[in-house]
Amino acid sequence: MTASGSKALCLSLLLAGFAPVCAAAGAPSIASSFAAFWPAAEGKPFLQQEQVWNRNIEAPRQAIYDTVVWEKQHDPYWQARRQIWLRARFAKYPALAAGIPGEVRALQDAIARQSVRFKALFPDADAHPPVTILLAPNFDAKSGVLGNGKPVLAFAADSLLLEHARLDIVVPHELFHLYHAQHAGIRNDGVMPDAPLSLPLFEEGLATYVSGELAPGHTDGELLLQDELGAMPASRLPDIARRFLADARNKAIDPDHPDTFKRWFNAAPKPYQQGLPNRSGYWLGLQVIRYLRRTYTLAQIAAWSPAQAEAKVMAALRQISA
Description:
Oligomer: single chain
Shape: globular
Number of helices: 17
């Protein structure tokens, strides 16, 4: 992002009423910040690298890093995790550094292009959504809530570059998460305090469905970012729905039993469940949304409150499993 582009984005966000995001956008572009950070950090001991990172990368965007990237308000161990993540990411920057400016530009273009398409599909969406581009070692794209309660969407250019991400799929998927948080109150991709597992199933399935509407022509494997999921036959749907029903009422956030969420939504080198690919919750969520679309319009589904969504998903799962 150029300095003039950053200022234009800042102005548009101010007009839309998102001053905290604008404060980050009004800082030097993340590409400029990285250009100041990496030459001063490359080859230095980690603690020196961290100091330069703090000064150039986080300080101009502190509110977003505090609440969205590191989630200091929720994670008592954020400092230890942050150091582990940053050490690993700094080790990858020698290979990534040259590509980061181009990835930032590609993200800018994709966000601008998909925002126009998104508003055509959802006319009440913001013309200038509160989106920021930054660097983060612990996610690629993430919806979050700032300290003042405003939803925001963050894209991590370095992580997306590392993954060779398909931005025409990722950007509309994440724009929907942001829209959903603003208009239906389903925040953090459905992973909210006291929410049952059926809510992230609904949220991720719906975001994947919307990305398919806004980026047509892709296979299910591409939309789900995992070929193994795209290859799953429809004949398995009743059995997988029954398996999920056994977990559906468990809490999405449960420190005492975190494996319940992981086995349906997390990626990992080893399978969480016998006979099922990891992240099968995304596949099942997409099938549930397609099932619901037989009866409801997309606008109706997107407007459901968390309680309505949970009820509709549970009813659909029971019907599908039967």
